[in-house]
Amino acid sequence: xxxIVVCGAGGFIGGHxxxxxxxxxxxxRGADLEFPEFAxxxxxxxxxxxxRDDRLCKEVFDGFFDEVYQLAADMGGAGFVFTGNHDATIMxxxxxxxxxxxxxxxxxxxxxxxxxxxxxxxxERNQLDPDNPLCSEESAYxxxxxxxxxxxxxxxxxxxLAYSRNHNMEVRIARLHNxxxxxxxxxxxxxxxxxxxxxxxxEAKVGDAIEIWGDGKQxxxxxxxxxxxxxxxxxxxxxxxxxxxxxxxxxLTINHLARMIMDIAGKQLNIRHIDGPLxxxxxxxxxxxxxxxxxxxxxxxxxxxxxxxxxxxxxxxEAAKNQNIEVIHRNVKxxxxxxxxxxxxxx
Length: 347
Prior knowledge:
Blueprint: E1 3-7, H1 12-23, E2 27-32, E3 45-48, H2 54-60, E4 67-70, H3 78-81, H4 87-107, E5 112-118, H5 148-167, E6 170-176, E7 179-180, H6 193-203, E8 209-213, E9 219-220, E10 223-224, H7 225-236, E11 244-246, E12 252-253, H8 254-265, E13 270-274, H9 288-294, H10 302-322
Helix pairs in contact: 1-7, 4-5, 6-8, 6-10, 8-10
């Protein structure tokens, strides 16, 4: 049995990761600003607090742990990341969390730590052609991400690699590509496109139109959270630090994604294209290095993942409707709810 800390344990991927770690018989401590929203945590111990506070980090890492998974970040979908309105907050909050977690681990001589980076580190120039994006790991340099969220992720990759070199730490870095699934954010401005489209389609009546930002011809790939967790654990248990892509190579347009969800839902709807933040024109995971180094790559189809995810989001929409809960949509300003609470900083 290993002693493990998961930072960002109240989040989507963190919650699923803890379930997997517990199913394998490990003792797990979670740390986050709040408990998971959609299911009780399975962590043995859960510390509510702000990882920007170095004193809180000392409480989280109050002894030796075999592994640390650092997924905590200030993040969201295109409506949060690509408007430019939150750049300073994103960079400050996420970088400070990483600085504090790494230093707390160094002081406790905790060697093995996973860092969740992002496909947003890749240069905009390599993602202008929606049919032929270049997202191989080495293409991240010369650096020119299209968002400050991507710049922070790239900086933090360098930070983890520096701690690995200078403090003999065993870091593992994965660049995650558009992870989706059940128990993930589906409304409020920080949700990503699969969840947003599932919600819109679940809410719509036959003959209605759903809105999609841009012309819908921008391309992406999407990976179900179960495959993401599998990839994280395979990397963590390997002798290779990365960075490596963990994503699907099943690229499609956002219009196609919407039609696929409509088919799963059994609804024929119209699409209305509107202006909105878009990110890069095309992005797809390049899994050649993943296959080479880990002898593995995700194989769940997008449709199979959506057939799990759509019913879950549909049920959330129906539950909110039945309880007369107002659903906050993407056109509402995403920062209406403060992400960080000041309680731990006020101690």
